[in-house]
Automatic annotation (TrEMBL):
Species of origin: Anaeramoeba flamelloides
GO biological process: signal transduction
Highest taxon listed in the record's lineage: Eukaryota
GO molecular-function terms, A-Z: GTP binding; GTPase activity
Identification of the protein by name: Ras di-ras and rheb family members of small gtpase superfamily
UniProt entry tagged with the keyword Nucleotide-binding: yes
UniProt keyword Hydrolase present: no
Basic residues bias: start-end ranges: 182-197
InterPro entries given in the database record: P-loop_NTPase (IPR027417), Small_GTP-bd (IPR005225), Small_GTPase (IPR001806), Small_GTPase_Ras-type (IPR020849)
Keywords on record: GTP-binding, Nucleotide-binding
Length: 197
């Protein structure tokens, strides 16, 4: 069974933990402790294939935990959560991108990222313009969905599609690695056979 590690990041009040629990437990948990970092394991079935997920619900504080650094360096994807009703939570997503690039010394655009605009059910209180989310999404090459942890709208679909994208990206990397190794082996065989002659 394929296994992937995903970090869920978001400012306190963005609905980060509520989205994580909505996906895992199919219920809305309004009262959660945003200062506690939790790690969950689950199995999902996508395209008739079981996939193991380890999900880190990051505490959202200023300091980077050892676990989050490990997820940045060895994880397979990042979910950035912001509230559509809170511009600060949206702008904070940029900070996570910078932290990822500093810790890993890699371009975030090359890493699977899912951007989730939460609280879609509060459209009348929206203060994050659609244009800003689209610009940010394009710049970091992220998948983007607007969701509601309260109603569950789009939560499962967004995360399942993201897991599928992660699987496809890493399957392609494995294929490329396999092809490179085979090319090296065949080149070595040709050189070795010439030397024997």
């Amino acid at each position: 069974m394929e296994k992937y590690k995903i970090a869920v990041l978001g400012l306190m009040g963005s609905g980060r933990s509520s989205i994580t629990l909505r996906y895992l437990k199919k219920e809305f948990y309004g009262e959660t402790d945003p200062t506690i970092e939790e790690e969950y394991e689950t199995t999902v079935t996508i395209d008739d294939q079981d996939i193991g997920l380890t999900i880190l619900d990051n505490a959202g504080g200023e300091e980077l935990s050892y676990t989050l650094k490990e997820y940045f360096q060895n994880g397979h994807g990042i979910i950035l959560v912001f509230s559509l009703t809170n511009m600060t939570s949206f702008l904070n997503c940029e900070r996570y991108i910078r932290l990822f690039e500093i810790v890993t010394n890699r371009d975030a655009k090359d890493h699977p990222i899912l951007l989730l605009g939460n609280k879609k059910d509060l459209e009348e209180k929206r203060c994050v313009p659609v244009e800003k989310t689209k610009d940010f999404q394009k710049r970091i090459k992220a998948h983007y969905w607007e969701v509601s942890a309260l109603t569950g709208e789009n939560v499962d679909q967004a995360i399942n599609e993201f897991v599928k994208a992660i699987r496809n990206q890493y399957t392609e990397k494995d294929k490329q690695g396999y092809q490179k190794n085979n090319a090296k082996k065949s080149k070595f065989k040709r050189i070795f056979s010439r030397k024997k002659k």
